[in-house]
């Protein structure tokens, strides 16, 4: 059975909202001598759409991080959890950026020293340096 997407759920919810709106209009404009058949048809369609939504909801991926559940159970705001998680990821990204810059600097210094120290491999070092994103001066 294929997983349901949020777009599928959105379609079901829109159909249910439409059913409820139509029922509201029909109820407001109800007259004794009018046909209750339309009303019954709309209720049956609403029930069918609710069943479809329920079945679609069962197929949605429902992985919720255990940390978030524990956070909510300790009566904390999940928005704060999200903000803390984003801050943690930003801090990690900054550390990774620092490491990348440090390794790039090391690459350039090593290549320069190798070209000075071993002139015979100068062209090979330049080729490797350019291939790895460095600058060959």
TrEMBL record:
Component of the Mediator complex. It comes from Extremus antarcticus. Keywords: Activator, Nucleus, Transcription, Transcription regulation. Its main location: nucleus. GO terms for biological process: regulation of transcription by RNA polymerase II. GO terms for molecular function: transcription coregulator activity. This is Mediator of RNA polymerase II transcription subunit 10. The gene is NUT2. InterPro entries: Mediator_Med10 (IPR019145). One of its GO terms (cellular component) is mediator complex. It is found in: Nucleus. Belongs to the Mediator complex subunit 10 family. It comes from the Eukaryota. Component of the Mediator complex, a coactivator involved in the regulated transcription of nearly all RNA polymerase II-dependent genes. Mediator functions as a bridge to convey information from gene-specific regulatory proteins to the basal RNA polymerase II transcription machinery. Mediator is recruited to promoters by direct interactions with regulatory proteins and serves as a scaffold for the assembly of a functional preinitiation complex with RNA polymerase II and the general transcription factors.
